[in-house]
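Students often ask why inverse folding is considered easier than folding. One informal answer: many sequences map to the same fold, so there is more than one right answer. In these notes we will look at a single instance of the problem. The structure comes first.
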């Protein structure tokens, strides 16, 4: 009930803001969203904005992602991100925690803090999930993926389960496979890989925007 009341109030304020100018959608993530070693024109945030504009959305996509970012680091710079006055956020963090052996409990708490802080500032969140690297134990990987679904359910968020869907599949006990959609490091997407990521997440982003009263051609 508390979430429903929150959403009704937010929808009223968003409809006014959307009428006065472009809707500012912030991407708040790590190197996968920041466009590691890619020209800005090929990065996720640029390709996503183009895809949305091509569909008729009056949306500006703000890049607030940083290579190597952890959930704790995201909390540390969240105030600066909020100061940019985004209308909504795509939150994509967590995989660097897994790489650095941060406990799932700590990662989950940090993500919860990020979500709650954005919401307290009247900034809705779409949560983007990741998968832990295949060198982690199976139980850890399962709990890591489940963490995103649990947070989405807890806070009433739209969840896009796996940011790298279509790039490669995490195979237990094996390194990331060679793919023509990643850079030479076999981890970060190349321009073609980013296009796959944008195509994959676009329906979820459109549903998110439409939930907020932002529709193509308006």
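Output (designed amino acids):
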């Amino acid at each position: 009930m508390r979430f429903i009341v929150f959403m009704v109030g937010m929808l009223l304020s968003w409809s006014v803001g959307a009428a006065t100018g472009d809707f500012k959608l912030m991407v708040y993530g790590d190197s996968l969203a920041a466009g590691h070693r890619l020209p800005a024109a090929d990065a996720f945030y640029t390709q996503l904005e183009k895809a949305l504009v091509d569909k008729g959305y009056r949306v500006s996509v703000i890049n607030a992602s940083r290579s190597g970012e952890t959930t704790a680091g995201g909390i540390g710079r969240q105030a600066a991100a909020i100061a940019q006055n985004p209308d909504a956020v795509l939150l994509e963090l967590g995989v660097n925690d897994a790489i650095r052996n941060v406990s799932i409990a700590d990662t989950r708490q940090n993500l919860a803090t990020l979500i709650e802080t954005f919401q307290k500032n009247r900034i809705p969140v779409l949560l983007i999930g990741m998968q832990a690297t295949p060198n982690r134990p199976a139980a850890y990987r399962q709990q890591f993926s489940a963490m995103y679904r649990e947070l989405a359910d807890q806070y009433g968020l739209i969840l896009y389960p796996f940011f790298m869907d279509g790039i490669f599949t995490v195979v237990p006990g094996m390194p990331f496979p060679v793919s023509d959609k990643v850079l030479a490091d076999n981890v970060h997407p190349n321009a073609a890989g980013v296009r796959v990521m944008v195509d994959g997440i676009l329906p979820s982003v459109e549903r998110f925007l439409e939930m907020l009263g932002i529709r193509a051609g308006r």
